[in-house]
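Hi all, long-time lurker, first post. I run a small reading group and we've been trying to get comfortable going from sequence to structure in the token notation. Rather than ask abstract questions, I figured I'd post a concrete chain and ask someone more experienced to write out its structure so we can walk through it together at our next meeting. Sequence below, copied exactly:
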Amino acid sequence: MDIFERIRKDEGGPLGQYRKQAEGYHLFPKLEGPIEPYMVFNGKKVLAWTFNNYLGLANHPEVRKADAAAAEKWGLGYPMGARMMSGHTSLHEKLEAELAAFEKKEDAYLFNYGYQGMVSTIDALLNRRDVAVYDSEAHACIVDGLRLHMGQRIVYPHNNLEKCDKALERATRLTEKTGGGILLITEGVYGMTGALGFLDKIVSLKKKYDFRILIDDAHGFGVMGPNGRGTSEHFGIMDEIDLYFGAFAKSMAGIGGFVSGPAEIINYLRYNLRSQIFAKSLPMAMVEGLLKRLDMIRTMPELREKLWTITKALQDGLRKSGFDIGPAEACVTPVFMKGGLAQATNLLIDLRENHRVFCSVVTYPAVARDIIMFRLIPTASHSLEHVEYTINAFTEVQKKLKEGAYEGTELRNMAIT
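-- Answer (accepted) --
Happy to help. Here is the structure in token form:
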């Protein structure tokens, strides 16, 4: 069959099948205006809880000033070419050195994008004799990186220490035959639920098995730990994490990411990361802007303190109001309710149109069929008044959900006119 003909006959995949009904509202919504707590959606001002702008740096005056000055100085094209060929600069090296020092590692290397950086790191580290062990709720970038791995992959149930132990035991037996090594990949903060990876417990298994640890701490970098060095600092095990991966799209409100670790290993990655060897260098304007952001993370702890004040108020308030927010310990805050797809859709319309609260919603197949999961992202830009208003809004829609107000399969206009 012709490829295009097959695609035309397909329903559009797990998400694309809903395009006609959902595009522009539930999928690919447009939030317009400066990145602030209140933005414009569907022509109306809404209170947004949907950005990973943890420290509020996206629209911070100092960041805006630094970005504007860097763009004026360098433009967006410089440097041209990949790092290995013609896109290497002293400022790229400076940012890498400062990131390595911040994470107490020997060296670091930049990625143009966090997603492709993780995919390429896994690809470069492993050969067909090696065994990868990973958590069942690993981010898509980890899963896609492992798809490139030609050797064995072993998955263990999310944050299950006993099963992780068994996976490492099995991996050890396999590598005794292949002559390879073991790489355990996990996350510091799970971005859907706000649960922390059990890094301290995984590290303790090093006394029993011989393996290396790579952590994806995209949601922990800049946020977790006394100094914002990440989830490994939170657990007090920075020296025991072999490779630390951080992203700039969350706390840094930028683009890109980095991996840090032993100098010899980073040097190897520098010459073997296909996503960087064959891609244009991170633009200088972003590099200089990231240096400013990193300096603010180091020198302005009040941003992190404000973030945690809002996070704790939101999570404590939701729990006291009877909401199920699961094991959330980091900033990401899920709210679980009972209901199906149609109920979730009608509830979301009510929430956005009448209560003017904008957050993401997750339904089957990402969660069980009878579960609706809302995902709230608190930031240092939010206020306690925003928290109180949002909890009240969720209390009202949950009451209506239990009363059957969102029943039925037809999508209804719940907006008050």
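A couple of things your group might point at:
The radius of gyration is 22 Å.
The chain has two domains: 3-54+301-402, 61-299.
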